[in-house]
């Protein structure tokens, strides 16, 4: 079967099996931002936005998105032009392994579009369906609150979408050569 959808702002047609879930089709076609984690919709690693709402693509039958608008992390920005949410995650050190981050960012984008000035409690509630095994959530919550400020014009933005230069010493491993211990 074929499905047609708007993917990251572009009309696309994909071949799919009736048994495919959206995550299968996305990853088979090079969209590797959404990650395969649990295959039950419990971890949030595969979160994308379907018609603006955050959804777990690992449990979404591909036939259900025929004609829908789907947004993945690849549709937000890239290294040279970060979305304010992506820049806030980087600037707040809100990522470690990066596995959960695409889903966290997609859910954060949905939250900030619905509620541009959330409280810490509202951020934690919005992200409660997304698991992170590395960061402990504190920096992720701080990043979302920072992104809200940036998107509301309450925080400075660099030309590349980031907050500008970070005022700290570079870690020794970024200097090139030598031991990392």
Summarize the structure.
The chain has 2 domains: 2-75, Beta-grasp domain (Ubiquitin-like (UB roll)); 84-163, DNA polymerase, domain 1, CATH 1.10.150.120.
What can you see in these coordinates?
This protein is α+β, with helices and mostly antiparallel strands and 181 residues long. The protein has two domains: 2-75, Ubiquitin-like (UB roll) (Roll); 84-163, DNA polymerase, domain 1, CATH 1.10.150. 28% of the residues lie in helices and 13% in strands. It contains five helices and five strands; from the N terminus they run E-E-H-E-E-E-H-H-H-H. The chain has helices spanning 22-28, 84-91, 101-114, 120-126, 138-151; strands at 2-7, 10-15, 47-50, 53-56, 69-71. It has a five-stranded mixed beta sheet with strand order 2-1-5-3-4, with helices on one face. A hairpin with a 2-residue loop joins strand 3 (47-50) and strand 4. The longest helix is centred in the middle third of the chain and has 14 residues, at 101-114. It is globular, with a radius of gyration of 17 Å. The N and C termini lie far apart (53 Å). Residues 158-181 have low confidence and may be disordered.
The CATH architecture of the largest domain can be given as Orthogonal Bundle
> Beta-strand level of the residues, as a percent range?
5-15%
The portion of residues assigned to helices is 25-40%
The number of helical runs is 5
Distance between the termini: 53 Å
CATH superfamily of the largest domain: [2Fe-2S]-binding domain
Using the coordinates above, name the CATH class of the largest domain: Mainly Alpha
Q: Any idea what the shape is? A: globular
Order of helices and strands: EEHEEEHHHH
User: What would you call the structural class?
Assistant: alpha+beta
Number of domains: 2
Largest sheet: 5 strands, mixed
Q: Do you know the CATH topology of the largest domain?
A: DNA polymerase, domain 1
Low-confidence stretches: 158-181
Average pLDDT score = 87
Strand order, largest beta sheet: 2-1-5-3-4
The number of strands is 5
Radius of gyration: 17 Å
């Amino acid at each position: 079967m074929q499905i047609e959808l708007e993917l990251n702002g572009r009309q696309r047609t994909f071949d799919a099996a009736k048994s495919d879930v959206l995550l299968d089709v996305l990853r088979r076609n090079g969209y590797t931002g959404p990650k395969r984690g649990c295959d039950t919709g419990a971890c949030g690693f595969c979160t994308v936005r379907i018609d603006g709402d955050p959804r777990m693509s690992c449990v979404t039958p591909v036939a259900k998105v025929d004609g829908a608008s789907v947004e993945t992390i690849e549709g937000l920005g890239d290294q040279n032009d970060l979305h304010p949410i992506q820049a806030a995650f980087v600037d707040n050190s809100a990522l470690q392994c990066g596995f959960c981050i695409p889903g966290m960012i997609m859910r954060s984008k949905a939250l900030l579009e619905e509620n541009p000035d959330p409280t810490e409690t509202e951020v934690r509630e919005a992200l409660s369906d997304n698991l992170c095994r590395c960061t402990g959530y504190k920096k992720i919550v701080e990043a979302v609150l920072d992104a809200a400020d940036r998107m509301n014009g309450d925080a400075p933005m660099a030309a590349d979408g980031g907050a500008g230069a970070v005022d700290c010493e570079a870690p020794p491993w970024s200097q090139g050569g030598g031991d990392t211990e």
